[in-house]
């Protein structure tokens, strides 16, 4: 995915590690294993842009009995691809999880100056809206309006949805299949709702929506009590236990360096879109005096 700009873009982020990061990576060779793993994780998360590092310096004691949930986040486009997995505490507020979800769309919208702090989780029939930022909008409002103004259409759609497996399951569980049992949707504030306040089913797919229409399936995979082998510092949660490694493209020209620019409908490029490292891009699109060789559309490229 990429960020749009036309012809004259010179600011490039991500991709090639800075000398500072290389130095930090080198120094890890001389540390002990647990610190090493943690430090590498921290650097890696910083590079890909996950907002909160792996572990915190502060100590927040856990209140027993405490529940731990294993929450999976899936890719917005490849819905079967798990991108992250967290351990979250039952007493934790939902916005803590949101702040740790990494999605490239956030970065692209930020670079384009169109970042929208709004977002929601839809868990069972509850919209958990993130309205912490004064400029955030309540994404659930138009949905509630539609449910109110188009009740027949909504009921019809619900009946279609529940006419398959769900209806069969309902019949098995309740002894009858009540298709008119339209859910009674409600909305709450994300930052005032704890996981333990919600009703959810393990393994069911719920929704995380942000940046207008970027949607991810989220799944609560497991739920259990905290045990002594878990991290005992409450500040370490949500604890990232899995992070998919992003796929980076190489430059189509030198085939050596990581691509950081992508051109579209570029008349001299071999492919469309075509990916370039920063050196090859400037070499092929700008004259020595820095003036543009020919007009073209170019985007910053981060990763797949
Ligand atoms: Zn997203
Ligand atoms: Zn190159």
From TrEMBL:
Chief place of localization: nucleus
Localisation per UniProt entry: Nucleus
TM segment ranges: none
GO CC aspect terms: nucleus; snRNA-activating protein complex
Keywords: DNA-binding, Nucleus, Transcription, Transcription regulation
Transcription regulation in keyword set: yes
Pfam families on file: SNAPC3
Gene Ontology MF term list: bent DNA binding; core promoter sequence-specific DNA binding; RNA polymerase II cis-regulatory region sequence-specific DNA binding; RNA polymerase III type 3 promoter sequence-specific DNA binding
InterPro entries in alphabetical order: snRNA-activating_su3
GO biological process: snRNA transcription by RNA polymerase II; snRNA transcription by RNA polymerase III
Family: Belongs to the SNAPC3/SRD2 family.
Protein name in the entry: snRNA-activating protein complex subunit 3
Species of origin: Asparagus officinalis (Garden asparagus)
């Amino acid at each position: 995915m990429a960020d749009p700009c036309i012809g004259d873009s010179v600011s490039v982020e991500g991709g090639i590690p800075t000398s500072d990061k290389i130095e930090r990576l080198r120094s890890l060779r001389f540390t002990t294993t647990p610190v090493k793993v943690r430090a590498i994780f921290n650097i890696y998360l910083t590079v890909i842009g996950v907002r909160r590092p792996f572990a915190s310096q502060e100590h927040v004691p856990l209140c027993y009995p405490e529940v731990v949930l294993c929450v999976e986040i899936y890719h917005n486009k490849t819905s079967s691809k798990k991108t992250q997995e967290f351990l979250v505490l039952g007493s934790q507020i939902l916005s803590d999880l949101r702040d740790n979800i990494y999605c490239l769309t956030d970065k692209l919208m930020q670079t384009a100056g169109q970042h929208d702090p709004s977002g929601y989780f839809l868990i069972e029939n509850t919209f958990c809206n993130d309205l912490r930022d004064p400029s955030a909008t309540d994404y659930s409002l138009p949905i509630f309006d539609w449910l109110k103004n188009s009740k027949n259409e909504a009921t019809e759609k619900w009946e279609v949805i529940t006419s398959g497996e769900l209806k069969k399951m309902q019949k098995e569980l309740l002894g009858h299949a009540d298709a008119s049992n339209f859910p009674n949707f409600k909305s709450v504030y994300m930052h005032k709702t704890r996981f333990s306040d919600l009703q959810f089913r393990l393994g069911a797919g719920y929704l995380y929506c942000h940046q207008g229409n970027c949607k991810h399936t989220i799944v609560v995979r497991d739920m259990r009590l905290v045990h002594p082998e878990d991290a005992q510092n409450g500040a370490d949660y949500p604890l990232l236990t899995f992070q998919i490694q992003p796929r980076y493209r190489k430059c189509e020209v030198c085939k050596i360096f990581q691509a950081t620019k992508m051109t579209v409908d570029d008349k001299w490029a071999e492919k469309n879109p075509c990916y370039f490292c920063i050196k090859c891009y400037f070499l092929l699109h700008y004259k020595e005096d820095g003036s543009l060789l020919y007009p073209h559309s170019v985007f910053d490229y981060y990763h797949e």
